[in-house]
Amino acid sequence: MKLGIVGLPNVGKSTLFNALTSAHAEAQNYPFCTIEPNIGIVTVPDKRIDMLADLIQPEKVTYATVEFVDIAGLVKGASKGEGLGNKFLSHIREVDSIVHVVRCFEDKNITHVEGKIDPLSDIEIINLELMLADLEIIDNRLKKVEKMAKSDKSYVKELELLEALKSAIEEEKPLRSLSFTDEELSLIKSFRLLSLKPVLYVCNISEEDLISGEYNDYVKQVINYAEKEGSEVIAISAKIESEISQLSEEEKKEFLAELGLEESGLEKLIKSSYDLLGLMSFLTAGPKEVRAWTIKKGTKAPQAAGKIHSDMERGFIRAEVINYKDLLDCGGFNKAREKGLVRLEGKDYVMQDGDVVLFRFNV
Length: 363
Prior knowledge:
The protein is of the alpha/beta class. Helix content is about 45%, strand content about 20%.
């Protein structure tokens, strides 16, 4: 999973990126501090893996990972090259989803590129630039398809779809707010349209607002906006995350408890990103390794096996499956088998989040 962190300059993107990845990217109080994208790979916190590792004591423990890309601050005119915009937009094309950081705090010591705190205006600036970049791609393709559709009727569906996309953008609707069939998504997949990518809005709030547990008016505005386009919203304090990132695991737990928080912003962000992309994890557990594997929800057993190795999918016979809670309660596979809790599943089994699986295959 590759997440691109975007936002206007000075909204706290790089501070959040540093906190999430401990990568120490530049985070200064001036626009375009980030030019080349900073990349950090983060392990996905997973208590299930921790508990299974305690039970099995494997030689190796491997968590799922998320790749964060800190993309430079966009500005008005980015789609026309303003602020090195074209370069930044190309970086967004490479990610699976967009983490859009929005400033929702007041601080006279941190300048705002637009001169005032207005999260909806900030969001619309970024969304408009993404849509304008998409419009250029759509217009170029439309010119070609219009000609081809005159002599080849197989292009008519694509022509109608492109016209609908253009119409939506002209009405300033991000393409992710529309509904598409699988066939339509297949037609436009190669265009790598930016406003089609799923978005998680991250409201960067003050330490005081986070501790209070109350959403300020800025956050409420973002939530109302996101609901209209079907996007998700979470609130994080980049400042607090920066402090947490400097602590040991034990100190983190104590610090979060003191603040009255159940989880860090990183955990909240990753959970929300998994939901946004329709992802989940299944687990493998043995004396050599306990490991989490990320798959799409709805994935069947053979395709899940293929995540481990293509031979496993090709030669799939069956899967031995148990929920991780049942495995922990039984204290191991042997007792779980004695109790009949390890199920044999075939090719049509749809994997469930938290399944612990042993794949049987023959190549």
